[in-house]
Design brief:
The protein contains nine helices and 15 strands. The radius of gyration is 20 Å and the shape is globular. Helix 5 packs across helix 7 and helix 7 packs across helix 9. It has a nine-stranded mixed sheet with strand order 14-13-12-11-7-10-9-8-15. The protein has a six-stranded parallel sheet with strand order 3-2-1-4-5-6, with helices on both faces. Bound molecules: NADPH dihydro-nicotinamide-adenine-dinucleotide phosphate. NADPH dihydro-nicotinamide-adenine-dinucleotide phosphate binds next to helix 1.
């Protein structure tokens, strides 16, 4: 297969919600190696609107019930699952069985067993699986990886990671659909941040649920949560997530200096600084970079830097944090 712009891979977005509409579809207008070829939706009005807006051919529009027919559609190379968390498992497996490469949004699934099924289905189909970890393609976050993993300021001693939203609604408040509260949704970025800044894996976690200020709204999931991750060499990451407070931080303190992002996980406006001064990196379209990298990985037959195994490890850690929160005990990973 030639790696030219004329051999762009076709992506079908599954679930036309906020992230698909506001980020991924616009991102696909900036990609070089892939394009929006199809859509899968439960809403015929959205199908009609997207068909017009993005010039999607009628034959490339599916519902959740006829989705499996996508196997016969040569326009679709990659299926991108952008559904509520609890639906990722079913749809990744259906996409793999249809013989398509798959991108799955974070968190990959609710349990490690589900992640194993998803990885196995893609392996069996001989198709690639990646997770929508856009920050691996964002220059400030990539700089945190470089500074930490290459020990530019010496070995890391301590890390701080916080990600929270002031307001949420809908399926994110349902335990059945989301699998949990802010930890599943945005706290996962703290787990990711600590992992990619240090290049290490946590050995154990402790956690404490925050007091629920709105018991009715948060009757199924936590409103906020603080937790600690213990890494090798005595490194500790102090983390916090919330659905009622805006938080956005990734900071590392190393032997000879600190480095941090004070807006760490947003789509735009990421700000970083080290003990030596402000970071200066260009703005990028994270989603376009992420999807292009996956398309290139497929075309070049190389692994993706954000594979299903990475998503599985995060789900394992998230589940350990919930266990620590529920039992009040230190949980090893
Ligand atoms: P939305 O609620 O905005 O959209 C979800 C879409 O899923 C709906 O619009 C609907 O699409 C479809 N859907 C099918 N069944 C259901 C159901 N039972 N309840 C609700 N929706 C359903 O969610 P987001 O777009 O914000 O999130 C989708 C996924 O993307 C999540 O896993 C989330 O974690 C992830 N995400 C990742 C981000 C990132 O930065 N990487 C940012 C935001 C979200 P339709 O009407 O077309 O059927």
């Amino acid at each position: 297969m030639a790696n030219t712009k004329t051999s762009k891979l076709g992506i079908a977005l599954v679930g036309l919600g906020k992230y698909s509409g506001d980020q991924l579809a616009p991102g696909l207008k900036e990609t070089e190696y892939c394009y929006l070829a199809g859509i899968v939706t439960g809403n015929p009005d959205k199908a009609a609107k997207w068909r017009k807006q993005y010039d999607v051919p009628e034959n490339n529009i599916y519902s959740y019930s006829n989705f499996d027919d996508i196997k016969d559609n040569p326009d679709i190379d990659i299926v991108y699952i952008v559904l509520p968390n609890a639906m990722h498992h079913e749809f990744v497996i259906r996409a793999a069985k249809a013989g398509k490469h798959v991108i799955c949004e974070k968190p990959m699934a609710l349990t490690v067993e589900e992640c194993d099924d998803m990885i196995a289905a893609c392996t069996k189909a001989n198709k690639m699986l990646s997770i929508g970890y856009r920050l691996h393609f964002e220059p400030h976050n990539m700089e945190m990886m470089r500074l930490g993993q290459k020990k530019i300021f010496g070995p890391i001693k301590k890390m701080f990671a916080e990600d929270g939203l002031a307001e949420v609604e809908g399926w994110r408040l349902s335990k059945a659909l989301a699998g949990g509260g802010p930890l599943m949704d945005v706290g996962i970025y703290c787990v990711q941040g600590a992992r990619y800044t240090s290049g290490l894996e946590p050995l154990a976690v402790t956690a404490r649920e925050g007091i629920k200020k709105n018991k009715e709204k948060f009757k199924e999931v936590e409103e906020s949560l603080t937790w600690q991750m213990e890494f090798p060499n005595g490194i500790v990451a102090e983390c916090k997530t919330s659905y009622s407070e805006q938080l956005n931080l990734l900071r590392a303190e190393a032997e000879n200096g600190w480095f941090e992002l004070t807006t760490a996980y947003e789509y735009t406006g990421i700000e970083g600084e080290t003990i030596q001064g402000k970071m200066k990196f260009p703005k990028v379209n994270q989603q376009a970079k992420q999807m292009d990298d996956f398309a290139r990985a497929i075309l070049d037959r190389r692994p993706t830097p954000v594979p299903g195994e990475m998503g599985r490890q995060d789900v394992k850690i998230l589940n350990a944090i919930y266990k620590a929160m529920e039992t009040g005990k230190r949980v090893t990973i």
